Amino acid sequence: MQAIVKAERTASKNMNTVTENAISLNIAKSEIGNEVVESINARDLHIQLWSKRQFTNWISERISKYGFTEWEDFNKFVKPQQNNKIDYILTLDTAKEIAMVENNEAGRKIRKYLIEVEKRYRNLHINTQKISHLYNVMNQENLTVNTLIREQTVCLPKWSTHIKKLFLEWNLS
Fold this sequence. Notes:
Elements (H helix, E strand, L loop, with lengths): L1 H17 L8 E6 L2 E7 H7 L6 H12 L7 E6 L5 E7 H10 L3 H47 L8 H10 L4
Antiparallel strand pairs: 1-2, 2-4, 3-4
């Protein structure tokens, strides 16, 4: 197992030479507790933090020392196909805290990276809501204009014939 970790670290180190200060963490959505949240695999975090400790001891110590709670801060699961290896999925907040307490340069960079990811996610979520709202408003307005033109329920000024043609040409009716 240590050989695999060393090989991953070597591969990661080689990648860092191509892109200096690159952080390679796969952030995914996972169900932790009763919520679907952004999460990180603890083994990936362990590798990126360049910890020299064996993974199982490292994560167990972090969980007990900092009071992380299963189904709230992380989930753990057994992989029967891999000799019952236990994996941990961490919330972003838990990963940030672990990175911070690692007290090394990699931990500081990872913590800043996760904070930035969270900001981008929040902004993306807000922008998605705004776009969705605008789409609904535009769709409703389009339906209203089309209904008015189709039913001709309003007294349109003389130039409206030109507008009506444009709507018909643009397939908006």
